[in-house]
Structures are given as structure tokens and as C-alpha cells.
């Protein structure tokens, strides 16, 4: 099985908002996904809603299953921070620079979801040391839209306001914090009627959380999918005549069947200066990468796709271009799990180690996400 390299520029998450901006008359935007037309649009991103998972559980999501739309790829790694950056900036990983759940930057290993120091028990806020607007300096797609006169609204969980990740990749719109499904629907409906041209971005995290804990396709996960389906249907019922709802996701998810603990394997830790990423994708920083590569391949063999930084860049894993300031953030080796393997860290990631579901790699289940459209 070959890795599924994201279809940057022709069918990936980073193409969604630029395609919509083209229809909203924003200069320089190109509609490569055929989405242009509606003047008032809500993008609903459902965390963890893989395309294949949705197909397997269509009976639990009849409204979403009824919508037409092409499948797209998430981007690499197929993880929340990287994917939200792709959506928010309209750029592939190598350009927006959030190369994973965690990575080396500015002398730290940054946990991008918490914008905190990775791998330590206490939370160390890094927003002052690693200023989010400097870690990701390019203008977001939302800033570009707002500058062109589009009303931009962000309907997100209240606790995400001012977070490092929000500042880095979602800046540019008015933040409307929500507490649950009810005000999410209400805030979106209000946003879509706030101006003649509107781009509203809404986010729901809980399907992903239940997939991690119980596994994708589990009963709790399926119940949550049913709730998500009703929310999407409710938003669609509130669309104005020139409005549209675009439903997509940041990644799929696999149920893991084998765990290898990197924190207790002397053979895999030998010569490794630092480890980052997450269980399905690891950035390995090493002084002598070739020796480390030999050891990892001797242990893991065909359970992983393993590439040097140069090989991963050449293969297009991070996009057609990798900016100079982004390149050192990528591990000397990039290790992407195949099958049901999880490369866990019981010491650095004690909670994540217990997860049943994981994501991040280059398998079709993790990479393929839906792109579904409902029109008013």
C-alpha cells in the first residue's frame, strides 16, 4: 500500500476557503473545488468526521449522507492543528508551518493545541515566547476576506477565544463563542443574515473526542454522529436563499490494534535528541539520522512509512513548497504509521496513550474527508 499524498491545490482542505472566496468576489482567489456561487456561506468543520467513516455509518447521518460533494484530503499530518491551519490560511502545511500536533520551534517543542510546552506534566504557556502571529505570520484567508469587505464570523467553542491556535490560524473575523449545539445553530443563522456577503466558520469538536476515547464507529461515537447530523440539518433549514452550508472535517480516524512505546524502547530512543508529533505520525530529531533510521526500520519494518526530511519534502507530503523557516520544524526523520499501529509515549503522553482511536498518517481512512454542500 502506497501512502496517500494529499491533493494540495486540486482537492485538499487548504483549497476550501479560497474556492469560496472566489465566489465572494475576493481578488486573487481561485475556485478549484467548484464551490463558488452563494453570497453567504457557513463552513462547518466536524472534528474527526472521516469520509469513509461517514459512508460506513450513513444510517446514523441521513441528512449528511443525502448531500452531494466530492471527497478531499486533509493534508499532512492529518491532525487538528495542521488541518485548521490549512483551512484558516488556505495554504498547505509547508507554507503555514504548523507541521503537526507538536514540533520543534524556537528552542521549544510546541504543543499546538494548547500552545504550550509539549511532553511535561504541568502546562507551560508559550504564547509570549512563541508568539502565534510570528509562528504563523502569513495573512489568514479570513483576514483576506475581511479586507475585501466580506463579513467574517467565527462560531467556535467559547474557550477557544484568544488561544494560541486561534490567533495563529483563525484570526481575521468576529469571534462568537458558543457553549453547545443550540447556540451554535443560532449564532450561525444570525451570522448568515448579518451582511450581503458573509463567510461564517463553525467548529464542533466532540465527535473526535468520542472517537479517541471509545473508537470511531463505537456506540457513543455513532450517537454523537446522529447529533451532528441534526445540527447540520438545523443549520441548513436556517439558510437564506443565497446561502450555503459546506460541511467538511479535519481528518478521519483509525482504531489502533498495536502500540509500541517509544518512551521505554531503548533501541528506538538511542541517538534520538527529541520526539514530537503524535501516535500516528512522529517527528524524530536526531544528530545522526541515518543510524537512527536503520534502527527504526529494523524494529518497525513495513509497519511504517519512514522518510528523511528531504525525502518527505520531495514526495510532497507537506505540500508543493516548504518555506525556509518551516523546514527545520520537520523532523530529521518523519515516521507515519500504517495499519493499526500507534507509536505511543507513556511518559510524555500518558492520556493520549490510552486512546482507542488515533489519526495523523497517510492512510486513506485518515486522509479522506467529506466536502458536502447544502444550498438555501
From TrEMBL:
InterPro entries: Alkaline_phosphatase_core_sf, Phosphodiest/P_Trfase. It comes from the Bacteria. Pfam families: Phosphodiest. This is Alkaline phosphatase family protein. Gene3D superfamilies: Alkaline Phosphatase, subunit A (3.40.720.10). It comes from Saccharothrix syringae.
